[in-house]
Amino acid sequence: MNLKDKYIDFFEQHGHKVIPSAPIIPENDPTCLFNTAGMQPLVPYLKGQPHPLGNRLCDVQKCFRTNDLDEVGDTTHHTFFEMLGNWSLGDYFKNESIHWSYEFLTKVLNIPVEKLAVTVFAGNDVVEADHESAEIWKSLGIKEERIAYLGVEDNWWGPAGETGPCGPDTEIFYWRSTDPVPVQFDTNDDRWVEIWNNVFMQCEKHQDGSFTPLKQKNVDTGMGVERTTAILEGVNDNYESSIWKPIISKIEEVSHLKYEGENKRPMRIIADHIRAIVMISGDEAQIYPSNKDQGYILRRLIRRMIRYARNLNIDMQSDFDQVLANMIIDDYKKYYPELEKNKDHILDILASEKKKFSRTLEKGLREFEKIVEHLDTNVLPDEFAFKLYDTYGFPIELTMELAHEKGLSVNKEGFDELFKKHQEKSRAGSTAKFKGGLASDGEIETKYHTATHLLNAALKVVLGSDVHQRGSNITSERMRFDFSCDHKLTPEEKEQVENLVNEWIQEGLEVRVETMSKEEALKIGAEAMFIEKYPDMVTVYFIGDVSKELCGGPHVKNTKELGHFKIKKEEASSAGVRRIKAVLE
Questions:
Q1: How far apart are CA 104 and CA 265, in angstroms?
Q2: At what angle do helices 245-255 and 320-332 cross, to 10 degrees?
């Protein structure tokens, strides 16, 4: 039984219900391109909304972070990773959480207590020092010299956005070294590696910076699968663990090179990126490579992988990428069945993007070498950086990486200016999304959330029942709604949709919610965007008798609260998918 199965089995035995991983692409969250932590999809329930499966939950969550992308290539960094999590939603608190963490590590994983140390919160003007957690750890056998009190920077979690649930945490560290374990826990010694974080959410931070007690105290824990697996298997290089070994071995085979010396970095990058590519393109949101948002990251990953495969002299005419992708799909489909379902989509994207980029990669690299050879400055000209992007399809980050290898710098601002002129609008609007965080759930966002249900229902009436939601994005200024459709909407169709939504708003339809089994919800015809992500018990929102959808909320109580619905734009999003941008006036 692997780490994931052991973890889920353990917490099921302690009364936790298993919830499916949320999609890697967050729904209705304009502040974040990807789910970056296991708790991110659970925010409404951490704030007090009842979860249909109760108040003890656990899962394996798909996560993706862009901030470490440039670090991938060393022994520990990954873009996509899996987070094991267990939650108490107003049920148990510090005592049970710490006891179970200790029991899982020492009894199930058989980690010697002598190799463990912990940190607890030192206190501030909001919450006092966490002596309670320290005493619990001592009662379990963690010696006082292995317990460190640290401040807000180290032992305070959240909120994930500007406001929301937050609180002190206790972190568990493992001595990852063959050196003798020191008696005193030194938090600055890199041989102590964090393996588990137990967050005790007891406060809510407000817009004005003030804190109030959360109406329910929660526990949110997180344990990284990749790091913990490497620790359990006694390797100091994550990529030598059983998670990565088969992929690395296949890369050795197709490149005819060994995983050693200067080959290690490109092989790690290829292994990491192919897994991330499969996870992003296999998500039900049906992401395609593009020049913005998640599509931009997907394209960047594919092109960076191709560049490093070329560095290892892997034949670009071979199907190495398809072989590696199939290995990832087979390894992970047990946990994420959408990968098998979307297999053709994943493989088609890889094949298409590789064909496109391989054509121009050689020419672009030759151009780069030529310009560098005659350069009399250590800064690459803005115009050339843009030419590599515009003519040869080099993401700016790839050009910056190539320049860095030659001891050159790139003026990113100059590139952005040229990009802005060429595109007539820059990517600046989405830059903030790379920072992560959580969507606001204020009054206007709640209205837009409800309006997406009405729009979905109206599209089905006007265009037919085969229309399904493919994604949505909500800000305080507008709503964006993607749906399956094979044609551009006519002016008449748009008008019919708009009028229908406004009719329902004026009718003052009641919005109510019911908890039921997923099977029952499907039986009554409830709409669901990604049915696989929902647990066995679900919440269904009914709007009069015009809409019923599986959803986590939040929603208004009556459609009259929405105002007037206006479609601002209807356009193509990707193949077979259209996009509507609309506002409430």
A1: 34
A2: 170
DSSP bridge partners of 166:
203
Q: How many degrees, rounded to 5, is the angle at CA 359 between CA 358 and CA 364?
A: 90
Q: What is the mean pLDDT of residues 204-216?
A: 88
pLDDT at position 432, please?
39
Q: Summarize the confidence of residues 109-124 as an average pLDDT.
A: 95
- DSSP reduced 3-state for 204: strand
- Between CA 343 and CA 23, with CA 465 as vertex, the angle to 5 degrees is 35
Window from 135-149, 226-240, 525-539 with minimum mean pLDDT: 525-539
Question: pLDDT category, 507, cuts 50, 70, 90?
Answer: very high
> Is the peptide bond between 44 and the residue preceding it cis, with omega within 30 degrees of 0?
no
What is the crossing angle of helices 131-140 and 94-103, to 10°? 30
Instruction: Tell me the C-alpha distance between 84 and 9, whole Å.
Output: 12
Give me the pLDDT at residue 133, please. 97
Q: What is the average pLDDT across 219-248?
A: 94
pLDDT at residue number 459: 95
Decide the pairing of beta strands 17-18 and 56-64. parallel
Taking the CA atoms of residue 205, residue 206, residue 209 and residue 214 in that order, the dihedral angle to the nearest 10 degrees is: -30
Question: Using alpha carbons only, what angle is made at residue 169 by residues 167 and 173, rounded to the nearest 5 degrees?
Answer: 165
513 strand-pairing partners: 541
Q: Report the C-alpha gap between 561 and 447 in whole angstroms.
A: 7
Query: What's the rounded Cα separation, in Å, for the pair 470 and 285?
Result: 6
Q: Is the pLDDT of residue 148 over 80?
A: yes
The band of 533, judged by pLDDT with boundaries at 50, 70 and 90, is low
The Cα-based distances of 416 to 114, 314, 429 in angstroms read 53, 33, 12
Q: Region 226-246: what's the mean pLDDT? A: 93
CA distance 292 to 561: 33
Residue 494's alpha-carbon distances to 159, 407, 490, 499, 559, in angstroms, are 40, 54, 6, 9, 20
461's torsion region: left (phi>0), alpha (psi -120 to 50) or beta?
A: alpha
Task: Tell me the CA distances in angstroms from 89 to 94, 218, 285, 339, 534, one per residue in order.
Answer: 13, 5, 28, 30, 18
> What phi and psi, each to the nearest 5 degrees, are found at residue 284?
-65, -10
Mean pLDDT of 428-448: 55
Rounded Cα distance, 230 and 233, in Å: 5
Task: Count CB-CB contacts under 10 A for residue 558.
Answer: 16
Residue labelled with tokens 């020092």: 129
Length of the chain: 585
- Contact by Cβ (8 Å): 137, 147: yes
Which tokens hold the place of 517? 């089994």
Rounded to whole angstroms, the Cα distance separating 117 from 554 reads 40
